[in-house]
Structure formats: C-alpha cells, structure tokens
Amino acid sequence: MKLHLTSGTYPYLSKIAEQHEDVLLYLATGRTRLIQENDGESIFTSPTSAEVIHSNGHLSDQDFIYYNYLPVSTDHESAFKENVQQDIDTIESTNAYRIAKVLDDDAYIILVSFSSDELVKPFEESAFFNEYFNHDHAKRFKGTDLFHMSQHVEVLKPNQEEHLES
Q1: CA pair distance 155, 3, nearest whole angstrom
Q2: Distance between CA atoms of 141 and 162, rounded to whole angstroms?
Q3: Which Gene3D superfamilies match (predicted)?
Q4: Over 80: is that where the pLDDT of 148 sits?
Q5: Is residue 26 a contact partner of residue 14, using CB atoms and an 8 Å limit?
Q6: 40 backbone dihedrals φ, ψ, rounded to 5°
Q7: What CATH number did the domain enclosing 109 receive?
C-alpha cells in the first residue's frame, strides 16, 4: 500500500477532497494537508509518496494525527525499521498508525492517529514520542550524510469548524 500526502491552501485542497472520497483532509498550522492511501499512483500534482511498511487500523478524517517526516540514513535504516515497528505497538489509545518509507528520499513518515485531542497529550509524554518525534533524540537516525535534511513534526486536526482558526 502507498501513502500519498500533499499540502496547500484550504480552498483549493477542500475541493479536491470533496471530489475524491478516498482523500482525507486535515488542518495543520498555517496549511491544509491531504492524505490518500491506495495501491497505485497519487491524484495529487505534487505528492510526497511513500510505501507503507507497517500499519494498523483505519485512518479517519475525524481523527487527530501526529505527523512525523523523519530523515533516516542508509546506515541507520535497518535498526530504525526494526525498532520503530516494535515500539509503535506499545502506544496506547491509537485508532491507527502508519510507518512508510518515502519513495524518493532517505526518509520515513510516521502517522499516529487518535480519536480525540485529549489523547494527544499522553502521547506527547510517551517513550515512543520521545524516541521518534523529539528532534534531539531523532537526530541519531540521520547520520552525517543527511545533514541537509530536517525532521518535520506537526499535528493534523480534523476538518471541523472549531479547528479552522488554530
């Protein structure tokens, strides 16, 4: 399975989401994100596409998702894959998660989905968050050859009126 993501303005991306029922729309700080899962190509003009290597549950456009774009060097990839796949199963109260290898980059995407924003705070205090979402700890996966790449972490909120301002 492939995971396709893109970002842009709310008016433009909301029209795409309305036209494609397999596309999920989320709000982030200063941007809107779309997520599509399928076995084929993305419908997006400028996607970040990744091959899902480990998953659980069903992503919903009503969930809160912690998104992590994490550079991982070839030297650290084997240990990263083994550890993250074991460690992610220890997270409590998730609706779904995805670990995916970005197709055209030395990076992985980790998505962790929660049914409410109240469940996000305990996740932020978890050992898994500290190991993989904390910038200082996650640097160990980059190695020296990926110094030019940076980790990007954000919370994706459901497309609900109360989240449009935040």
Answers
A1: 17
A2: 37
A3: 3.30.70.100
A4: no
A5: no
A6: -125, -145
A7: 3.30.70.100
Q: State the pLDDT confidence band at 83, using cuts at 50, 70 and 90.
A: very high
Q: Which two tokens stand for residue 110?
A: 């980790």
Rounded to an integer, what distance in angstroms lies between the CA atom of residue 65 and that of residue 48? 17
Determine the Cα–Cα distance for residues 73 and 50; give it in Å rounded to an integer: 16
Whether 162 shows a pLDDT value over 70: the answer reads no
**Nearest to residue 151, comparing CAs of 162, 137, 163, 135?**
135
Number of compact structural domains in the chain: 1
DSSP 53-110: EEEEE---TTSEEEEEEEE--HHHHHHHHHHHHHHHTT--S-SEEEEEEETTSSEEEE
Contact 11, 64 (CB under 8 A): no
Q: Which domain holds residue 9?
A: 2-163
Give 5-63 pLDDT, tens digit per residue.
999 999 999 999 999 999 999 999 999 999 999 999 999 999 999 999 999 999 999 99
